[in-house]
Specification:
By secondary structure, the protein is of the alpha+beta class. Helices cover about 30% and strands about 25% of the residues. The protein is globular. The protein binds 4'-deoxy-4'-aminopyridoxal-5'-phosphate.
Length: about 300
C-alpha cells in the first residue's frame, strides 16, 4: 500500500514538511528496534472528524515506553493535542491513519539505549482498508504461521515495540507468499495468539472467545476491547480463554480486530472454511456496530471520540 504524502509531520514539537521528516542513518532505533509506536484512526462523524480512542492509544504508548525504560519528554495531554492539531493541519478526513513513534535518535551506538536522545514523531495520512475492501466485505483467508509469537519472557509482548514487529513481518510474508491474506500465530506453547497486527475472535456456541493476552503473547488490542464492550452491550457473552488451532476449525464464525484492519471476517483457516465460508451474522452485526461507533453514530460510545475542531 503506497503512502499518500500529506503536508506536515509533527517532529519533536514542530510541524515539518513531509519531505523533510528524515533522520540520521545512525539513529539507534534503526539498528536495534528500540522504539515504541501506536496506530490510530480518525473518522468522519456527524459532528466533524474525530479520533477514535485517542487518549487510550497515547496512554498505551506511554505504557509501552515504560516497559522499554524510555522517558517520553511530553505528557499524554501534549501528545493528544499534537495528534489533533496534526489531523487538522493536514485537513485529513474519514479513515485516516495516525502513527505516533517514540524512537532513540542519533548520538550513541551499542546496545545500551539509556544515553540515547528520545525523539517523538507523529505522522498521519489517508489510508483505506488495511486488508482490502473485499476482505472487509467477504472475509480473509488465513494460515497458521510456521513462525511462533514471541515468548513474553523473551520480549515484552504487552508493549508495542518497533523491533518486535520483525516477527509479524516474517509471518505476513510467509502468508502472502503462500497465497493467504493473513497469518495466525501460535504462542510459544502452541496456543492461538493473534494475527500479525490484529487480535482474533471466534464464535463458539453463540458466544465470543478471544485469546487471553498475557499467556498467549497477544497485544491487548484497543479494537478488541471496544468490540468486547459493544458485544456485551448487544447481549453476547465474551470470554478471554486459551484456544488451540482446532478451535479455529470448529468455530461457527471468526474475525479479526485492529485499528488499521478494523473488524474483518475470517473466511478460512488452513484451507478450511470457517462456518459456511461467508461472514457470519454475529461478525456482521459487530462489524456494523464498530463502524457506526467509530463514526459517532452511537451515543453510548461518544466518549471514545476526540473531535478535531
Ligand atoms: N496485535 C498486534 C500485534 C498489533 O500490532 C495490533 C495493532 N496495534 C493489534 C493486535 C490490534 O491492536 P489495536 O486494536 O489496539 O489496534
Amino acid at each position: 500500500m503506497p503512502l499518500t504524502p500529506t503536508d506536515k509531520i509533527w517532529m519533536d514539537g514542530d510541524f515539518v514538511d513531509w519531505a523533510d521528516a528524515t533522520v540520521h542513518v545512525l539513529t539507534h532505533t534503526m539498528h536495534y528496534g528500540t522504539g515504541v509506536f501506536e496506530g490510530i484512526r480518525a473518522y468522519r462523524t456527524p459532528n466533524g472528524v474525530a479520533v477514535f480512542r485517542l487518549r487510550d492509544h497515547i496512554k498505551r504508548l506511554f505504557a509501552s515506553a515504560k516497559v522499554f525504560m524510555i522517558d517520553i519528554p511530553y505528557t499524554v495531554d501534549e501528545l493528544v493535542d499534537a495528534t489533533i492539531a496534526l489531523v487538522r493541519v493536514n485537513g485529513l478526513d474519514d479513515g485516516c491513519y495516525i502513527r505516533p513513534l517514540v524512537y532513540l535518535g542519533y548520538g550513541e551506538m551499542g546496545l545500551n539505549p539509556i544515553p540515547c536522545p528520545v525523539k517523538v514523531s507523529i505522522a498521519a495520512w489517508p489510508w483505506g482498508t488495511y486488508l482490502g475492501d473485499e476482505g472487509v466485505a467477504n472475509g480473509v483467508s488465513t494460515k497458521i504461521s510456521s513462525w511462533r509469537r514471541h515468548d513474553p519472557n523473551a520480549v515484552p509482548t504487552a508493549a508495542k515495540g518497533t523491533g518486535m514487529y520483525v516477527n509479524s513481518s516474517l509471518a505476513k510474508m510467509e502468508a502472502l507468499r503462500g497465497g493467504y491474506d493473513e497469518a495466525i500465530l501460535l504462542s510459544a506453547d502452541g496456543n492461538v495468539s493473534e494475527c500479525t497486527g490484529e487480535n482474533i475472535f471466534i464464535v463458539l456456541n453463540g458466544h465470543l472467545v478471544t485469546p487471553h493476552t498475557s499467556d498467549s503473547g497477544a497485544l491487548a488490542g484497543i479494537t478488541q476491547r471496544s468490540v468486547e464492550t459493544i458485544a456485551r452491550d448487544l447481549g453476547y457473552e465474551v470470554v478471554y480463554e486459551q484456544m488451540i488451532r482446532t478451535d479455529l476449525y470448529a468455530a461457527e464464525e471468526a474475525f479479526l480486530t485492529g485499528t488499521a484492519a478494523e473488524v474483518v471476517p475470517i473466511r478460512s483457516v488452513d484451507d478450511r472454511d470457517v462456518g459456511t465460508g461467508k461472514p457470519g451474522p454475529i461478525t456482521k452485526q459487530l462489524q456494523q456496530a464498530y463502524f457506526s461507533t467509530v463514526r459517532g453514530e452511537i451515543d453510548r460510545y461518544k466518549d471514545w471520540l476526540d473531535y478535531v475542531r
